[in-house]
């Protein structure tokens, strides 16, 4: 038993990993993942260098206190408490028994040893606890410097901020099948009604070139260690004000995440990378977070100053994780910035939603069109919003018009606005024996007796 282990209070279970000192060039570090049992007496194991550490245990164990210290360059760090967070998932596609509770993962950059403990509130060791060591590796594209998006023109939604795609930050898409084939297919909710702000409870002193690896590490931890389908958040923002696409399925769509427990439906989660319980987020982080929310809210016609009802609970449309349960997330210093964030989003959106598509939806009746599923987005020739019951298209040349029912289905099958028909120039109207809708370069004709829709193009489309 080590000298350190003899000094621990009775009942503390510690795993002590003493690792060989290895010389690596950063580009030569390969990804690796290892889980080690925290059960029983202290053990010593050799393993590869790692950059992220976390602790997990079976679902249902309450009030766990977890901590680690790591060995770097032959020296042991001080003990550091890990943030315990159980209210992100679960994912509905994960088979029963796979999900585990656990801490948030902690970025340690380059460590060659770890000591860890996990205790219940009465000081006893947590059964079947595991310490997770992740080396996300280093990729040539780990530097990401996106240009700032241009301000939106009058009458158009706030623009999508530049962000690192999953491909750019190096997501291994095979990992989404780790917990079953059903996980590989993204799940969608009906619309976007709210944004939940989180922090990752990680450290705040990371470098620009480390962030992509940190996101890869979180991805591996959420899937392999916690038993989720994918990284839990829809978006992540680093301290330099850069955005990273989170959960797979399309940043523009209402992808179901695993970020706020029972409130994941019809919301999205945006996590600021760092720990903001004592330190405050950078202004660059706050500004880019506001821009992401402004883009999503403007596209889905939501007000940053409104209230919504999710899971039977009335909440502000921009809320912190702690608004849904007893948790420190997103940290006291970030939480107190939420009023500023709501005001900033409102300013970026121009104080109201006023696009031609939204005004047309109001004219048709919001109940008739249904909630927006694919929020207002730029198309090849104009703009479009796919609502639950209608798709509305707009261009300066055609004005706003909608497709509905069989006309919508056929138009989509032809490629919608990318088809030879072009954009709709009328609503569906009745004619002898059926109905018709006119497009820039032709018509869709419905024959009532045959119950079929035919396509008619102009002679010179």
Short description:
The chain contains nine helices and 25 strands. The chain has 461 residues and is α+β, with helices and mostly antiparallel strands.
Secondary-structure blueprint:
Blueprint: H1 3-6, E1 15-18, E2 32-37, E3 50-58, E4 65-72, E5 75-76, E6 80-81, E7 100-102, E8 106-111, E9 113-119, E10 130-135, H2 166-169, E11 194-199, H3 211-225, E12 235-237, E13 243-245, E14 267-272, H4 283-299, E15 307-310, E16 313-316, E17 318-320, H5 332-335, H6 338-348, H7 356-364, H8 366-369, E18 372-378, E19 383-387, E20 390-394, E21 401-404, H9 405-413, E22 429-431, E23 434-439, E24 442-447, E25 452-457
Parallel strand pairs: 11-14, 11-17, 12-14
Antiparallel strand pairs: 1-9, 2-10, 3-7, 3-8, 3-10, 4-5, 4-6, 4-9, 12-13, 15-16, 18-19, 19-20, 20-21, 22-23, 23-24, 24-25
Helix pairs in contact: 4-6
Protein name: N-acetylmuramoyl-L-alanine amidase
Region (Disordered): 143-163
Domain N-acetylmuramoyl-L-alanine amidase: 179-331
**Which percent band covers the strand fraction?**
25-35%
- Radius of gyration (CA) equals 26 Å
Helices, by number, come to 9
- CATH H-tier superfamily of the largest domain: Peptidoglycan recognition protein-like
The averaged pLDDT comes out at: 89
Report the helical percentage: 10-25%
């Amino acid at each position: 038993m080590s000298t350190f282990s003899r000094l621990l209070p009775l009942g503390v279970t510690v795993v002590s990993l003493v690792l060989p000192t290895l010389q690596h060039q950063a580009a030569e570090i390969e990804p690796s993942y290892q889980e080690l049992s925290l059960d029983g007496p202290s053990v010593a194991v050799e393993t590869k260098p790692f950059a992220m550490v976390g602790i997990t245990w079976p679902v249902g164990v309450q009030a766990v206190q977890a901590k680690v210290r790591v060995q770097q360059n032959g020296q042991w760090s001080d003990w550091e408490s890990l943030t315990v967070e159980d209210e992100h998932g679960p994912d509905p596609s994960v088979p029963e028994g796979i999900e585990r509770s656990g801490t948030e993962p902690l970025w340690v950059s380059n460590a060659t040893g770890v000591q860890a403990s996990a205790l219940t509130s009465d000081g006893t060791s947590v059964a079947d606890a595991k310490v997770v060591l992740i080396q996300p590796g280093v990729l040539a594209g780990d530097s990401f410097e996106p240009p700032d998006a241009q301000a939106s023109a009058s009458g158009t939604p706030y623009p999508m901020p530049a962000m690192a795609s999953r491909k750019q930050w190096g997501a291994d898409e095979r990992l989404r099948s780790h917990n079953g084939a059903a996980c590989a297919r993204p799940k969608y909710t009906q619309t976007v009604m709210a944004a939940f702000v989180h922090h990752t409870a990680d450290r705040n002193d990371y470098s620009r070139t480390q962030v992509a690896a940190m996101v890869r590490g979180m991805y591996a931890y959420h899937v392999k260690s916690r038993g989720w389908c994918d990284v839990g958040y829809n978006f992540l923002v680093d301290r330099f004000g850069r955005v990273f696409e989170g959960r797979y399925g399309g940043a523009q769509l209402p992808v179901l995440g695993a970020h706020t427990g029972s409130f994941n439906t019809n919301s999205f989660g945006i996590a600021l990378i760092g720990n903001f319980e004592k330190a405050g987020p950078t202004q660059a982080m706050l500004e880019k977070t506001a821009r992401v929310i402004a883009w999503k809210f403007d596209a889905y016609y939501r007000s940053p100053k409104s209230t919504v009802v999710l899971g039977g609970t009335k909440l502000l449309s921009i809320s912190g994780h702690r608004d849904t349960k007893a948790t420190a997330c997103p940290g006291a210093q970030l939480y107190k910035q939420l009023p500023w964030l709501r005001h900033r989003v409102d300013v970026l959106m121009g104080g109201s939603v006023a696009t031609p598509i939204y005004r047309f939806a109001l004219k048709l009746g919001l109940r008739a069109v249904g909630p927006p599923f694919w929020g207002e987005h730029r198309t090849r020739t104009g703009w479009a919003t796919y609502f639950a019951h209608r798709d509305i298209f707009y261009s300066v040349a055609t004005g706003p018009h909608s497709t509905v029912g069989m006309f919508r289905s056929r138009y989509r099958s032809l490629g919608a606005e990318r088809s030879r028909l072009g954009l709709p120039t009328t609503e569906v109207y009745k004619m002898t024996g059926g109905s018709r809708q006119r497009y820039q370069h032709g018509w869709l004709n419905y024959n009532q007796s045959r119950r079929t829709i035919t396509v008619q193009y102009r002679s010179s489309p």
